[in-house]
Each structure stands twice: as structure tokens, then as C-alpha cells.
Amino acid sequence: MHHDSTTLTHLDAEGRANMVDVSDKQPSDREAQAQAWVRMRPATLQMIQQNGHPKGDVFAVARIAGIMAAKKTHELIPLCHPLMLSSIHLELKAVEPDSVRIVASCRLNGRTGVELEALTAASVAALTIYDMCKAVDRGMVIDSIQLLKKQGGRSGAFDAGVTA
User: Fold this and answer.
1) Distances (CA, A) of 24 to 27, 86, 122
2) Are 145 and 122 in contact (CB under 8 A)?
3) Of 4, 49, 63, 141, which sees the most CB atoms within 10 A?
4) Is 148 in contact with 59 (CB distance < 8 Å)?
5) E strands present in 7-135
6) What is the pLDDT of residues 62-71, one digit of tens each?
7) CA–CA dist 145, 127 (Å, integer)
8) Residue 88 in contact with residue 19, Cβ under 8 Å?
9) Lowest mean pLDDT among 14-28, 110-124, 146-160
10) Is 45 helix (H, G, I), strand (E, B) or coil?
11) Nearest CA-CA partner of 70 in 23, 128, 15
12) Which residues are annotated as a binding site?
């Protein structure tokens, strides 16, 4: 069960943004899963599925981009802590007739959660698909970027109720 907090943890008493001090927290196992969808023309999806893209395997490149992005989340999101992720996993699935679903999972044993890392991995994998396929389909839409679930830490578990 998850309960939203009524306070913004990144703001100090004067309302200024600061990185949260996690030094007093005990390390614990933490895991998060996020998704992103890329909607496209059916012909674009077919090209991806048939490995017909001249730049190579779209899913393989997007998967590696997502992994790299998760590791660099703290460089992109100003108040994120640098983390030693123990696992990053991306699943990319063609969903007929015109979509790709990306599910990113991140794990660690540490003092802060990995939600942003999972969200960043899914988002950058989706952007990579767009980048690789934009020459044939500029009308692609990236949507439904969301946290699916998280566990560990003081705030407890969260489950969006979306099947991965």
C-alpha cells in the first residue's frame, strides 16, 4: 500500500530546492519499474519487427540507450542522487498493430529509491526509437510514461495497477 506524502522533500524551510540528505537512512533493497509507449504507423512497427532498419536493430539500440540513461539519471535530474545500480533491465515489446511498449526495471541496495532511474531508462529508450525511426515516421507519439511499481524504503510499496 502506498500513501502520498503532504510535504515536498526537496524543499527546505524557506522553500529553496535542495538535495535530500539520505545519510541517516539505512540501506535497503529497492526496486522500481516504469513504462513508456511509442505509437507509430503500422508500417514502421513492421520494419522494426523485421529488422529492416538500415541503422540496425532498433530494440537492441534502444535497450542499451535505456541502460546508459538509467546510469546517468543524476546528471539529468538536478536533485537526484548518484546511485550504484545493481540491476537495470529493459523489455521492449511490439504490440500490434502500431505500438512498442517499454518496461524498465532498476534495483539496488541503498539509501534512496530508483523510481527516476526506471522512468529515465524507459523515456530514453522511447526517444531512441523515435530518433532511429523518424526518417520514416515523424508522427510517432511517445506517451504513458509512468511509474508502474516500486518497493523498498520508508515510503513503502506503490503499484499503479498496470500489468507489466
Assistant:
1) 9, 21, 30
2) yes
3) 63
4) no
5) 28-39, 87-95, 99-110
6) 999 999 999 9
7) 11
8) no
9) 14-28
10) helix
11) 128
12) 79-81
Length of the chain: 164
Annotated active-site residue in 131, 137, 143, 159:
131
Residue 57 is among the residues annotated as catalytic for this protein: no
* Binding site listing for substrate: 79-81
Grid cell in block for residue 123: 523515456
| C-alpha cell read off for 19 | 538535495
| Cell numbers standing for residue 31 | 526496486
Sheet holding 99-110, edge to edge: 87-95, 99-110, 28-39, 141-151, 158-159
Q: Which three cell numbers stand for residue 23?
A: 545519510
Cβ pair 118, 34 in contact under 8 A:
yes
Res 2: pLDDT:
47
pLDDT for residue 70: 99
pLDDT at res. 1: 40
Pairing of strands 158-159, 99-110: unpaired
